[in-house]
């Protein structure tokens, strides 16, 4: 009986209530801030890469966690093609990327950028640059590409560092005549971007895209008619 | 000439600090005459003559975000963390961090303009921001603080010449002038909070000399960016500044006209241990 009374008295104690109120108020604030903060972070570019990463980059979600934005890869690149993203760029702040049309990857055989990476965000396991997967070339301009118009520009095929394997000409016969169509072998293409860089059109007809964007991903969205 | 020398001598800690900060910026920006670099990368991770260094706070965010551990980043992190733990974490804030140049300038302007208005912020706010950034890194799988971190932002802007991050720097600058006294470095920045915890038992410390020279003018407290760390010493309740928040900037030493304060490296356990100051017995 006496016990019950003392417990009740403790609960009545205003000091204790004040402490609880304070704690819960703080917990509430922390929850709200966390939820908002996470929403803000998630509103940044989606996990699928929208930019081209240096060779050896981990899959985009892992890359964003592992890359500590130090820029050692940028400084290691002998051709200065890499940039660290600033706020206005389409990649998370501070992460490295390159733009194929202005400056493609030259595919150095010793891969200095990946060697420079301290965290392994650019994997040290990549030893053969021809196995790199920066993206994949996709011929998007079926109406503008000169080869589709019956000419044999074929510049993209001729500049490819993995010549004859990653892009080759495939003869296709249609109402215009016999066309030589530049065709990408996605298993050989490293996504270095040399073809996009050299496309003679003022906007490239062949583009290098991150693999998920260039080839699509099976099962990423429910499909079918209904 | 003598007056200039005297001026430099009176502000020797300040000038040493400025020289150090500018040298670090220059080391990242300049090339060696024969083509190599002093330092490559930036303050999140860098290579100095082939030795890799990594910021432990950014490393921790990356770890929480779920990244695999790179060997050289781990070693570099241990070197940096070890040094700051040994000497005192917030040495980073006043001797290395480039943002300190900006916020010290803000503070100087604030003094010149006699701005008294001060929006009071809790010193614990930065600890909350620190915990939040770690929690968000864990939840989102991204480096939460690196989305905004003005330190690496500053270095990127400087080296690669993009200007969007200048907005952040400008807001910190104005915030420190007009809103809160030493608002950024002493109240908001989670990097400082992290290094404060890391270097809590750092052995490089400001101490009161035993000569009884202090005349109680409290000028040291006025210039201290973290006045609460000096208060026990000035009140003669402690011999040493033991609080992790002390940035070892030496402003108190420059200001003290009596020689009552000194900075010393004390590797022995005596004097203070586990952050508990020993009250002098005289």
Automatic annotation (TrEMBL), chain A:
The family database entries (Pfam families) matched by this protein are listed as: Fer4_7
What superkingdom does the record give? Bacteria
**Residues annotated as domain 4Fe-4S ferredoxin-type:** 59-87, 96-127, 180-211
Q: Which InterPro entries match?
A: 4Fe4S_Fe-S-bd (IPR017896), 4Fe4S_Fe_S_CS (IPR017900), MauM_NapG (IPR004494), PSI_iron-sulfur_center (IPR050157)
SUPFAM superfamilies from the entry? 4Fe-4S ferredoxins (SSF54862)
> What GO molecular-function term can you cite, just one?
4 iron, 4 sulfur cluster binding
Q: Does the keyword Cytoplasm apply?
A: no
Keyword annotations for this protein, in alphabetical order, are: 4Fe-4S, Electron transport, Iron, Iron-sulfur, Metal-binding, Repeat, Transport
The record's section on PROSITE patterns has:
4FE4S_FER_1, 4FE4S_FER_2
The record ties this protein, via PANTHER family, to: PHOTOSYSTEM I IRON-SULFUR CENTER, PHOTOSYSTEM I IRON-SULFUR CENTER-RELATED
Q: Which NCBIfam families match?
A: mauM_napG, PRK09476.1
Name the chain's protein: Ferredoxin-type protein NapG
Say which species the protein is native to: Methylophilus rhizosphaerae
UniProtKB/TrEMBL annotation, chain B:
Q: Which SUPFAM superfamilies match?
A: 4Fe-4S ferredoxins
Instruction: Indicate the segments forming the 4Fe-4S ferredoxin-type domain, all copies.
Output: 204-235, 237-266
Q: Which GO terms describe its molecular function?
A: 4 iron, 4 sulfur cluster binding; metal ion binding
Instruction: Report the Gene3D superfamilies cross-referenced here.
Output: 3.30.70.20
Which parts pass through the membrane?
62-87, 125-145, 157-179
* InterPro entries the UniProt entry points to: 4Fe4S_Fe-S-bd (IPR017896), 4Fe4S_Fe_S_CS (IPR017900), Electron_Trans/Redox (IPR051684), NapH_MauN (IPR011886)
Would the keyword Iron-sulfur turn up in this protein's UniProt record?
Answer: yes
Keywords, ordered alphabetically: 4Fe-4S, Electron transport, Iron, Iron-sulfur, Membrane, Metal-binding, Repeat, Transmembrane, Transmembrane helix, Transport
The answer to whether keyword tRNA processing applies is no
| Cellular compartments per GO CC | plasma membrane
Superkingdom in the source lineage: Bacteria
| NCBIfam families for this protein | napH (TIGR02163), PRK09477.1 (NF007013)
User: Per its record, how is this protein called by name?
Assistant: Ferredoxin-type protein NapH
- Tell me which species this is from: Methylophilus rhizosphaerae
